[in-house]
Design brief:
Elements (H helix, E strand, L loop, with lengths): L3 H17 L17 H10 L3 H24 L4 E5 L6 H4 L4 E6 L1 H10 L9 E5 L7 H5 L8 E5 L8 H14 L3 E8 L1 H7 L1 H9 L13 H5 L3 E7 H8 L3 H10 L1 H6 E8 L8
Parallel strand pairs: 1-2, 1-4, 2-3, 4-5
Antiparallel strand pairs: 5-7, 6-7
Helix pairs in contact: 1-2, 1-3, 3-11, 11-12
Length: about 280
């Protein structure tokens, strides 16, 4: 792997592999195991004891699956771009979409070797980019599309600074003037109260959360996006697992948990044209 943040992709991969093996999987990503190697197993050993965060990780994937599939049912030819794709396999599992996966060259190479594009059930391209040295705008330019585009950014925003988040959204608005973003956003208070132990392991790997706030959605609002939906990851994880009592408690009485880590769907309408 080229950098510490890329290594966290092995953690989320492990969550989905473990989930797929369960009698009642939350996500059911049966392709995830194709990417397992010695490095992935070593990383997973450090995280496998975090049962609740791991379940939430699988649930967040399932929430995005559902939201995107609803859109693809309406428009099977829609463009879907996965930024920081990691070991995402949605192009193999969901019905419809013209898919573009964007990530670090080492991850793309591993994906190409373990799960070739030719096996995808939908049109799929992979785009390797060194985020530290290459321009995302320049690399995405050939894929410019004025039609409604769906952009998945999962497990990424907590590692970006405020400036990097703003820059990323500016690139998306330029390349895909009419698009939808699906992403997970974590509040600072949630991380401090419920994720310190997990974050300790992540930071030991050299990956760090940046500029967390208690209003992470504000960067989208300031950029002109509107909120289409917002779903509690923790609450949905309990619902998918059939934990009715826990789901009720989270829904009714534990607002910091319910509100602290959510999947957001943001709509970006085309910028208005200048008169004349």
């Amino acid at each position: 792997m080229a950098n510490a943040v890329s290594k966290t992709a092995y953690y989320t991969l492990g969550c989905r592999v473990e989930d797929a093996r369960r009698r009642r999987p939350l996500c059911g990503d049966t392709f995830a195991a194709r990417f397992l190697n010695d490095e992935a197993r070593q990383v997973w050993e450090r995280f496998k004891s975090f049962s609740r965060p791991n379940s939430s990780n699988a649930a967040r994937h399932q929430i995005i699956d559902t939201l995107v599939q609803e859109e693809l049912d309406r428009d099977p030819q829609a463009r879907v771009v996965v930024v920081g794709a990691g070991f995402d396999t949605r192009a193999y599992r969901l019905k419809g979409g013209r898919w573009l996966e964007v990530d670090d060259p080492a991850i793309i190479a591993h994906k190409d070797a373990s799960l070739p594009v030719s096996e995808a059930k939908n049109p799929l391209e992979r785009l390797a980019i060194d985020f530290a040295t290459e321009s995302l705008a320049a690399r995405l330019a050939p894929y410019r599309d004025a039609r409604r585009t769906h952009v998945i950014i999962e497990g990424v925003f907590m590692y970006l600074t405020h400036a990097q988040r703003r820059d990323l959204l500016a690139v998306l608005r330029d390349v895909f003037p009419q698009h939808v973003v699906y992403c997970d956003l974590m509040r600072a208070a949630f991380m401090k109260a419920y994720s310190q132990d997990l974050y300790a392991v992540i930071s030991e790997m050299g990956a760090f959360f940046r500029d967390l706030t208690d209003a992470p959605e504000s960067v989208f609002q300031e950029a002109g996006y509107t909120t289409a939906s917002s779903t509690s990851i923790v609450q949905r994880a309990t619902e998918l697992a059939g934990q009715r009592v826990m789901a009720f408690l989270v829904r009714r009485f534990v607002r910091p948990v319910r509100e602290g880590y959510r999947i957001w769907k943001f709509e970006a309408a085309p910028a208005p044209r200048s008169p004349g």
